[in-house]
Write a structure and sequence with these properties.
Number of strands of chain A: 15
Structural class of chain A: alpha/beta
Strand order of the largest sheet of chain A: 12-11-7-10-9-8-15
CATH architecture of the largest domain in chain A: 2-Layer Sandwich
Radius of gyration of chain A: 20 Å
Number of domains of chain A: 2
Largest sheet of chain A: 7 strands, mixed
Shape of chain A: globular
CATH class of the largest domain in chain A: Alpha Beta
CATH superfamily of the largest domain in chain A: Dihydrodipicolinate Reductase, domain 2
Helix content of chain A: 25-40%
Oligomer: homotetramer
Strand content of chain A: 15-25%
Number of helices of chain A: 13
Distance between the termini of chain A: 38 Å
Order of helices and strands of chain A: EHEHEHEHEHEHEHHHEHEEEEEEHHHE
């Protein structure tokens, strides 16, 4: 039984709390900490069986009974709390991204060198039933050698202006998941990135210096070509698909829906829209990723998504930004790290 | 908060335990009773947070703190324990069927007359996301007046000979769910049933006096025609579909799969088989039905599936058997009750 | 090169004219006869390359250069013209049904006994790409032994009252195609039929003594159970599906559409309705069936659909009517022939 | 009635012959010319009703009865024969591409200036039922403003080394259709092209200086981003899909198959592969495009695909080649014309 503390009781902190309480039998939550811990949240946590709360996450780091922490706080705190947690000898599950600043990620990488601490980054989509099944088809040799990888990733609505301002921009906030997906499906790293992007959804996003629509072409180290298409707003909901094409064939996913019901009327043959909200769409993957983290601790194995897997998509995001700025393909090797 | 006791710690008893512990926030399980309670089960229950176990369900019935019981014991005990629980003033969730003996069901109906006790029968499929979405389309008027209802219900493999012997036969054991589904989708009762059946899956089933394949035509009281097709064995897994056709169109479901992955190779374009195991396929519906039961207690409303809804599919099963024996359409009014 | 004459220049006569002119390279049409031959039709025929027209089909029967005739006249003339054509030594392609009167069909059967004349009946759906592919899967052993056959056949709109009056009723006019489909897919004859029917689409149909909605259960001679569901009006168009379920699996078709385009918007994910008009839906099958007829003549082989295949669905239709009248399952052996 | 001559009796010449004979009622073929006209082809043409053949296409150009010619000869003759035909006053349907040499295309453009001659280029896919339906959805405003266009175009097998040598390379031979599709779906021209390409299918293609796999990103003049993914070999057949995503939603097509049959067995749920051969897949579009050409002549309207539409995809192909060579995004305005 692994004893965990959760740092951050916002949306994603609650998701992980629920996952552990409901599905992860070999873990128990001893404490949840959040500087803005509300009475309502405390009550909810009690109902979930979490006895202890705090406004100071150091209480978690200082508790010798706690084996592992989940860092679910705001993005700009991820790397620092990671460093503190590693120093305190805690295993760490860190929400993505570790940091937007490569130097900070580097510190975390260094801190983990030679250590027996387990570190996992929260790229949950790898654990999604659909994407995991595509990966399995690839690994099982069903599609032969990989030639083309396509990832469609479109949000149901753009972020608020406030969020966009601190998010690091679309490539580091949203596409970062797709960069990880491309690495996951290809089974190797990216070599070069080219971005064609535009502001088509909301001029305010452009005014804030970001883009909202992009097609990103990536040359992978194994020779395959990956392409991601992003939009900050799909009118029909959250569009999350992938397709891997190779010498023997293709594995492709479609979107998940609330039900399989199809209505045939004089207006057409209509099925449901994709699940709209990312927490609903990816609920299962959040539970699975945390279960894998706990299992890695229990069995003393590597986590499925280590600190380097957290670093690489950030590098890709920075390369993507550079591609937009300089309007040319950018090699990953150009990004100083 | 509703305090419940669970009678029976077999497969379905465990499913309900898990559902309540994980999803039903307004209920807690005080005790689980089973005459064959094993150490392993006790340990599992502890892990789920259930403190008390017993080999005698009377401990549950006699506990004044327990508001409601879930009867998950073997079929032949359902009606008697229902009667005892009602006498003890407990609300009752009873797994299907209440009994194969109409006289016993009648006793339960009588015991509930004029009582304020909530009684719900475990026809879980009404709560399944797909079938509930079909029902919603019907209720919302999307298909107009209902003309034809089709239910396909095929098991992935036939029951053991031992189980078949005590199950009451295919119509009372398996089709009973489809009889309920037809009533649910039609929003009314059956008037007449005709069965064309055969032994095509396993001759041993025929030797035991049962059938394993059937097409059942039902005239509903609202004039619609329903048809159920059953097989005890679909090579591709658990086939669970429904289609409602009416004056304005059709609402239809397809099977659920583990993922949406489709593999295109020189051998064809292949998706996953339907989910094989009923607990996996209907997991969500089991949680939802128990949540509805607890809500009905808390809010003092009718349960969505009362004792009469438990009775009617048994009547239909008996009419179906009579149709096979006498090789003719049988009116529900012919069945003595 | 087979020289043919076409008797009847109505809708179906024109379809066959077009098929032969466009697709059937080993046949040429020498003459088309129709008592109501219009100038417009004559002009259209000229455009198709048909030089000769007549108001009297005997001109065709008496022309020694004509090898074969296609009988596309009104239903009540099919058997008599068949008899005349056989007497004239012409090969015959006869639109379904040969007759509603079994005695008349019997005369045609007798006339063909010992003769070398090719006779084919126009159950075109056997030649449809979808249904032929289901049949192929069955014949190739892909589904093992057949257990259940399901045919959904729903028209986009009911016939006019005038047509219904002379059509012989739904079972002989519309379901007759489905009776043939069931025989085709099962590879054997029907043994017993039970009908549950209703008037739900149009009361006028009921007043005319017919039904417009039916579920028909058929026991096949090989032990399989077939079920047909019919409606005279599907709001979403022409619904034509089949499903064969057996010991090793299931082969099923879906409807054809004008394109595969799917539109995803905030209103849902919507594909096209089934092709509405039977001539559009079955265009390919009409060409294929006539090609097979011509090939049978050229190669001196049996036609794929002989006079007995024309008889059997009529027997089934009569049994179905009897089942409605007497409200019981009716054996095919009860129908005097 | 438009009288046409067909120049070239190879594969595509025969397709157009068949289309006109079978479907285009307002045209008749007077002559087919081919320097390698074989007896077999002459016989086939007779069977189709084409009386005159020649080994010299000038016979067609010099025939005053012939209104229009279809140029179906080898690619390197297209522009010269176009010029001759225009000089002879014939309307011209020219197979794609007009030429690989922009100067030659320019000559054709000039020759048509101020002339009343109808000129159409054979980008047949615009007339395909699926792609035309996507276009219609766009034009009807169903998806709002266009943001992203995706075209998947993968051949079932690579061309022979001989063909590849004279084809102009993948971008001018194969992708040229997709360049046209992108222009068609966007309703505007391309502004800039970036190609990421590779040799993954066959090293011999690389040795010949060409590529066999590519992802091509295109900035369109209306601000939309288009992306084409190409492979010379899809193991599952001819993969031809498009998707247009915009402010109000998405319109997408899937591949056409020979039937809709789906087989469910213990091995999975398997549908048919895409139609393998381009003539089979696009048969309908070939007939429709020629019909439109003839109609434009009869009604004296513009053809749907003029000489400029023939030019632009060649410009795009040349820009694509330059992007590969210089490994950077290339503006269309950089291509000298």
């Amino acid at each position: 039984m692994v004893t965990v503390g959760i740092i951050g009781a916002g949306r994603i902190g609650k998701v992980h709390t629920e996952s552990i309480c409901n599905y992860v039998r070999n873990a128990k939550i001893k404490m949840v900490a959040d500087p803005f811990m509300s009475e309502e949240t405390e009550k909810w946590l009690k109902g979930m069986g979490v006895a202890n709360t705090s406004k100071d996450y150091h209480e978690i780091l200082n508790d010798p009974e706690i084996d592992a922490v989940l860092i679910c706080s705001s993005t700009n705190t991820h790397s620092n709390i990671s460093l503190e947690a590693i120093a305190a000898g805690k295993h760490v599950f860190c929400e993505k991204p570790i940091d937007h600043d490569l130097a900070k990620i580097k510190e975390v990488v260094k801190a983990l060198e030679g250590s027996s601490i387990k570190y996992q980054v929260g790229f949950n989509r790898r654990f999604d039933h659909n994407f995991a099944a595509v990966k399995k088809a690839v690994v099982d040799g069903k599609i032969g050698e990989t030639h083309i990888i396509k990832v469609t990733s479109r949000d149901p609505e753009p972020p608020s202006a406030e969020y966009a301002a601190v998010s690091g921009g679309m490539f580091l906030d949203m596409t970062i998941h797709d960069f990880d997906m491309v690495r996951f499906l290809a089974g190797c790293d990216a070599e070069e990135i080219y971005v064609q992007s535009a502001v088509l959804v909301d001029p305010a996003i452009g005014e804030a210096g970001d883009v909202d629509t992009a097609v990103i072409t990536i040359k992978m180290e194994n020779g395959a070509i990956a392409v991601i298409d992003n939009s900050r707003r799909a009118a029909y909901g959250y569009d999350q698909r992938a397709e891997v094409f190779g010498s023997k064939g293709m594995a492709a996913t479609s979107n998940d829906t609330a039900s399989s019901v199809v209505l045939s009327t004089q207006d057409g043959v209509t099925g449901e829209k994709p699940l709209y909200f990312f927490l609903e769409r990816y609920m299962q993957s959040f539970a699975t990723e945390v279960g894998c983290f706990i299992d890695a601790i229990e069995n003393d194995t590597d986590t499925p998504l280590g600190v380097v897997d957290g670093l690489k998509p950030v590098l890709m995001g920075i390369a993507a930004k550079k591609s937009v700025e300089e309007h040319r393909p950018v090699k990953l090797s150009e990004i100083q790290y």
